[in-house]
Amino acid sequence: MTIQPSKSPIGLDGVPAAETVLSHVDGEKGELIIAGEHVADLARKSSFEGVTARLWSAANATLISEAEVRAALGEARARAFARLPQLLGAAEGLSVVDGFRSAVAGLRAESGLTHDATIVGAMPVIAAALVQRAKGAAPKFPNPTLSHAGDTLAMLHGRTPNASEAAALDAYFVTVSDHGMNASTFAARVVASTQADLFAAITAGYCALTGPLHGGAPEPVLEMLDAIGTRERIAPWIDSALARGERLMGFGHRVYRVRDPRADVLKTAIERLATNTTDLPFAAEVEAYARAALRRSKPDRPLDTNVEFFTAILLDALSIPRQAFTPIFAVARSAGWTAHAREQQRRGRLLRPSSVYVGDMPS
Ligand code: ACO
Prior knowledge:
The structure is a single chain. The longest helix has 23 residues. Strand 1 and strand 2 form a beta hairpin. This protein is globular. The protein is an all-alpha fold. Helix 2 runs parallel beside helix 16, helix 6 runs parallel beside helix 7 and helix 12 runs parallel beside helix 14. Strands 1-2-3 form a three-stranded antiparallel sheet. It is built from 16 helices and three strands. The protein has two domains: about 220 residues, Citrate Synthase, domain 1 (Orthogonal Bundle); about 100 residues, CATH 1.10.230.10. The two termini are about 10 Å apart. Bound molecules: acetyl coenzyme *A. Acetyl coenzyme *A (ACO) binds next to helix 15.
């Protein structure tokens, strides 16, 4: 029995799966609107708590203030810390990325907190505890008076971050908090569309995020920069990778036909951080050469920088270990996932697409 693969690439490109008030991606213009604001404006003027308040308010059609979100997330971080022994029990022996999946799957309702706050609040506590465990260290207590981004860094590094470090991670959290019908949000919405609870939907979202075609790309971006190593090697390394048919990590996007607008927002955040631990000019040279090389090798398919290229450089500049990049992405994206899951539960229809059968027919 042979299976003939379909000649048409079926990936639901351009197929609307839901109506949403949460975010909008225009791939031709290179535009991202989150809860009514352009991403660059939002990153300039809003905190992660502020954008989360906007997303939750829009999804639930009720006004939730930034102060309420800040208080709820602080309390949720403290509650999650108290439950770490149970949450991390099933993560024994797993990597940070896989341990995070297992711990997130173990979250459950906390009295007095919404499920949304329990989930988003627990995410950095789990990620930081797994990073500490990988170093053989004990988890660090959360500080509910810090911002979500500041406390994430404090728990990861065991010291209070300075203002520019906290601002840089906050800008990253805002920038990647939501992004239309990306694969992980779609996965979360599919689960929510069955009226399964928020914990199930967010676990599904995280599982979809972990792949290198989605949120698993930043670690390979750094590996690529390491492998290139020096300025002289940029051209030969990229040319031979493309000649071998390899994909350059941090480039290309299903929707954007121009540069991902989030790339510039993150580049600005790195410049503001002004750290000497990162070689931004080298990364910018790699980026420029890669864009030109992709134009030459795929003239019919516009391929440009995506968010993951500068995510890798920003998170590295903040001394966040590579193995925690995907969980840290999830910390931010959980704001969008929870909002989308709520919106789907409130207004959506069971998501149940069809498939094209290319197998044998009964004789
Ligand atoms: N480097 C080299 N070639 C590429 C790249 C790339 N980064 N991306 C796509 N191409 C090529 C493909 O090989 C394909 O060539 P072919 O027609 O000769 O086979 C052509 O461009 C079209 O590719 P598609 O598979 O149609 O692109 P798709 O929309 O499915 O892929 C994706 C989007 C997965 C992001 C892809 O560009 C990729 O793999 N990029 C590298 C990984 C990455 O950066 N992931 C993070 C994405 S951002 C995010 O999810 C948060």
